[in-house]
Structures are given as structure tokens and as C-alpha cells.
Design a protein that fits this description.
The complex is a heterodimer of chains A (131) and B (367). Chain A has one helix at residues 64-67, and strands at 13-15, 18-23, 31-32, 36-43, 46-47, 54-57, 60-62, 74-75, 81-86, 96-111, 114-126, 129-130. With 131 residues, chain A is mostly beta strands. Chain B is α/β, with parallel strands linked by helices and 367 residues long. Chain B has 2 domains: 8-182 and 260-360, Divalent-metal-dependent TIM barrel enzymes (TIM Barrel, Alpha-Beta Barrel), CATH 3.20.20; 188-255, no CATH class. An 8-stranded parallel β-barrel of chain B has the order 1-2-3-4-5-6-7-8, surrounded by 5 helices. The chains are: A mainly beta (131), B alpha/beta (367).
Chain lengths: 131, 367
Amino acid sequence: MIADRIIEQGTLITQDGRTAVEVRIPWYRALPGSCIAGAALTVDGVSAPEGSLRWTMNNRTFSFEELVDETGEWWFPLDSAVLSGDLPVPDSRTEHEVRVDLKLYIPYIITDHGVLHIEEHDTKTMKVAQR
Amino acid sequence: MTSLGTPIQGVTLYSFTRAVHARQYDLDGLIRKVAAEGFGPGLEVIGFSSLRGFPDRIDDNFVGQFRDLVAEVDLVPTSLAVNVDTGIRRDRLMNHDELVEYMRKQIEVAARLGFPIARVQISLTPDAMESLLPVAEKYGVTLALEVHADQHGAHERVLALRDRYEKLNSPLLGFTADWGATVTGFAPSLLEAYRRRGASEALLGQVVDLWNGFYVDGPPNTQKVHGERFGAFIGLAARNGRPDLGIDFAINGTGLFGPAPLDTWLEIMPWVRHVHGKFFGIDETGEEPSVPVRSLVRQLVENGYSGAISSEYEGWHWNNWQDPFDIIRGEQAVQRSAAANAGSAMITDASEARRILNSHLAQPVRG
């Protein structure tokens, strides 16, 4: 597990009330969209509304509802995905505390309670780029 | 009397996950590094880790480049680790036909890349393995189902597979023995990682005591017992005010450090086609403090095993303060020393390794 690398340092950007950050998989192998079960994006303690979150990988953008059935696009361990949501971050001069929570299914580990899922999070401090 | 085995030295690229994830090496660079360090000749790769687009988008151009590179640096492909992603859909588990096709695609890539073995996983039932036998025969790839903690060589699920193998009597069905099933202690490097996360010595002492108790009791032979042990680690963390560490204790304490006795491997030894030399660290004396590497190598040698041992360093999950290449170098030195002490030797020459692997396995791969 490599949770300390979920957030890519220096990738926080904001534009017209939407904010995005690049994220890395905290796991050793590729997972399809269907195994990316949820995320949260929080800046300075304020979280983007769940319904506004979007996930971009392999040049395609998904809502988390759309990811449920997505077994064709895979998140490769070397690639950054982009997590974005409705979240105004106005001040570009100060450092912001960025937190990303991720819930992933591990599709080959089937427990008595169903497919194993892991919940990981990372917090990093960085400035925001205005676009 | 069984003649002494000559295991083939090798490594799985999984050992270097943290360095690859940090983009310090691409696949080409890492394979060259492994060869230059002398960590081969055996080379194991995880398809879903190292191969972009695996398995559907592996084109002939990539296959050619991979084969050329492996030939150039004189490594010997041993096993392509493939995954049994039964739970890939959110609404239900894969059905039997979907699973067979999912595995077929991965096994085909193993053959195309020149891997004689596909490492498969425990969620394949005896029926599924029987259904996959024609796939193995089509591609000439041995299916070596990994016996990994929390299972072990004498676990009910493993014995059911063994019994089916015996009935089917095909040299293409076997096991990958993962040394993590037969661990003798909670890895000290993981305790150090918890210490760095603020865990108290009192808590860590209780974690070690809990694991040692399971070691004395012996391995879980059923999923029910496994579940109870998993829960015991979570409860321990919660009672000590560190519920955030509970899942981590449980996953590692049951899923990485299996407490089975070494002789459990004898139940399946004739079907062991590949070995994961799982380990977690090398201490200041140059030894593995929680995996009995010397005894495991001796057991393989004395039982005539002449397949590959992929050194599989798993301490990367938590150890971000030591160099994995130094650690692999140290563990392979222990393996070579152990093989010599057992009256044999690890095979480190590539051409000798090819010859021995071909006779260890049933038939050459048809890529």
C-alpha cells in the first residue's frame, strides 16, 4: 500500500468554481473503473459535493455512477488520474491543505463479506493554480 | 531416494513496486537493472502491474520488444503472474464461463511473451482448474495456483485442488508455493513502520503476542478460523485506542504472515512448479528474521525441486527507508548459502537455467 503517494504534489488547479488534483493508485496493479468505488476531495476542510465529483483517466471523464459498470478502462499504476469537483479555492498565494479519500475494490480477494475493499487517504499541502 | 534439487535463482519485479511506482524505472530499465545486478536468471512479471493494456491490448510490437530485451540481457522468463479477478463487477461475481475466458486471455499473453508458467490464484476452484486445462494445453503453459497465506499446503481448499490434480494427472496443473504461508514471526520491519506511525511499544508487544499465539495454535484450516483471527487484530487495535491500525494489523497479520509449519508443503510438493521466495527484510546479521529461508531452501533441495524461486520482497508496502535492491541482494545470498549447505547449488547461469526449467516443466511454451 502506498497511500502517501495518492496526491501528486503541486497539481491542484481551480477554474470557475471547479477544483482538480492528480491522484495515483496506492496499489501495485491496475484496476478497472468498476473497482474505483468512491472518492472525496477536500480542500482546507471543505469537501466537494459528492454528486459533483468526476474521475478522469485515459482521457475519459466519468461520474462515479458511470464507473460502476466500467470494466474496459483501467487505471494503470504509472498513470495519474484526475479527481475534480465543485469547490471554489480562491486564494492562489497561500498553501492549501488537500485531502483525497479513495475506496477501491480488490477484485481477486473474495471474503466472507464480499469483495475486499480498501479505504485509503492522503493529505498534502500545496498552492493552487488558477486557470 | 530423491536426488537433490537445483533451484533456479530469480526475482519477481513485484519486489520493486515502490521504485516503479515512483517512476524511477520503466519496464525496460527495470529489467536491465535486474539483469545487471545478477538477480536472475529467472524473471517473473505481474501482468496487471507491469504491462500497460494487459491483457487485451498487448500488441505484437510490444511482444517482440519484450522478447528481444529478455534475450539481450540473458534472462529466463519463468512466470507471468495473472489475476483471478472474480469480483471485477459490482453486481455479482463472474460466472464460470466469464472466468474461463478472463483467464484464457491472460494465459495467451503469457505464452506470447514466452513465460512457461502462469501463476493463478486461490479463487479458482477444482472445477475451474479442470475447465482451464484445455487452455493450458492449447498454449503449452503450466498453471501454477499460488498457495499463499492465509491458506497453506495442508489447507482444505488446497488439498481439494491437489486431489483434483491427481485425478486429472496433467503435468500442466500445479502450485506456486509462497513462503509467506510458513512464516515464523511478525516481521520486525513492519513493527518498525508501526512505531514510526506512533504505535506504542505496549501495543506492538500485544500484536506480536497475538501472532505468536496463532503460530503456536497452528494455521487456520478453515475460512471461519481465518475470519476470527482477522477480527482479533481489529479488536486489539480498537482496545488500545488505535482503531486506524486495525485493518492493517489484520491484513498483514493473517494475509502476509502465515503461521503454518514447514512440513505442510510436503502435502503438495510433487505438484510445486514454481516458488515465490516471499520475504520481508534482511537484518543486520544478513538473515531474514521472520521467514525461515534457509530451511525452506533446504526442504526444496532435499525434495528434488529444480524449478525457479522468484525472490519476492514484500516489505516495500511499509519500508520506505531501505533500498529494495540491497534487500534482494541480501536475500539471494542467503538462498545460495542455504542451497550450498544442503549439498546443492542455486542455478545462476541462464543457459543452465533454461535447460533445467525445460525438464522441470512439462513442455515448452507455444507462444
